[in-house]
Write the structure tokens for this entry.
Amino acid sequence: MTGPRTRELLAREAAHLAPGATDEAEAGGRVFATGAGSVLTDVDGHEYLDFAAGTLTQSLGHCHPDVVAALTRQAGRLWNVHDSATEDRAALGELLSALLPEHLDTYAYFSTGAEVVEAALRVVAAVAEPGRNRIGALRNGFHGKTMGARMLVHWDIGHQSFAGNSILGYSPYCYRCPLGLTYPSCETRCADLVVKHVATKPQISALVFEPVLGAGGVIVPPPGYWEKIAQACRDNGVLLVADEVLTGGGRTGAFLACTWLGVEPDLVLLAKGLGSGFPFAVLAGRSDLLRSPEAAAAGSTASTFGGNPLGIAVALATLTVLDRDDLIARAAALGDRLAAGLAELRERHPMIGDVRGAGLLFGLEFVRDRETREPAPDLARAVYRAALDAGLRTALGGHILRLAPPFTLTDDELAQGLERLDRALRQVGPC
Ligand SMILES: Cc1ncc(COP(=O)(O)O)c(C=O)c1O
């Protein structure tokens, strides 16, 4: 339930706030005041376990003391010197090279996910062989709201679709297979079609993809899907550009989702999990690509806020803690327990059609009926609201609720989160 201070603030800002908020903010109607670890507190003093980790940004929880100290220290020293080097930048590059696969040893720094997607598209365009003037992408993918990112997937959250020059392949959406097939008897036919229509087309320069599709509903590929596509891209000179803005930094139980999926990308994009909520993004790539004269024109990686000293300091502190405290292993272990808890909830609540995930990233798909699988966005929204009232924040998108808590979640908080979700589910629908 919302309190009086929340209602007063929302009424006040309504006079000036442009519409267009997410479903999540709109349906939630909360005004948050503070965050500490996995717990958010609103302006009326109500507490919430944050199983959405900010915007899947708070892998270390809210306001981790080491990150706050690094940001505060930097805030008293220096904020912006364009893209000139600062004290922490060399150390950040060294740490990234220790965490990423060996071949991804060259980095450029940006501020947001969409910005780093655009940077990758510029690199691809710069190095592409003549005639390779189209890009491959996946249905249900999401890469941000700038024109280049929207052009990739022909759809956009909140806007009319925008037709671009990409060629789309099927994502591995087994629960709603676009081909009407079932895994494993399908033998990943969707991947064969991506190979045929994208990976082997001579006009394609790169395939831009989310290894696990996040905004599209946490679509986790079955074994075989990426193996086929990645191999075909390799054999045909199509660059693999992994958008790990959401999955990167340990969210799926490995620093890169590509690693456990066995994909060796040429470029990787990282953002959410790197900056603890501070805007920061990294384009990581093969040295020969990022240092090629075509891609490395003067100023090509610079922008006003890209790689600013505050972001660098925050990312260095975030990754240092992630590494020092072995938090990715913790995410994987917590993820196993969350998976078991969610599977148990699915047993008891027929409105949950599907539960899927990897590491600490899960999607719950709400359906009207398990037979027809008709999507039920009203149920997802009702559960989202009831969960907030029970003290649990999740991420709402259409008929899907995503759960992605901080890696620092305690065992007790995990159990409480599941209990609160169960309470919300029981409130919305009969078991
Ligand atoms: C995979 C992926 N790429 C890119 C973006 C865009 O990031 P931003 O919102 O920081 O522009 C998002 C945002 O959710 C994302 O999930």
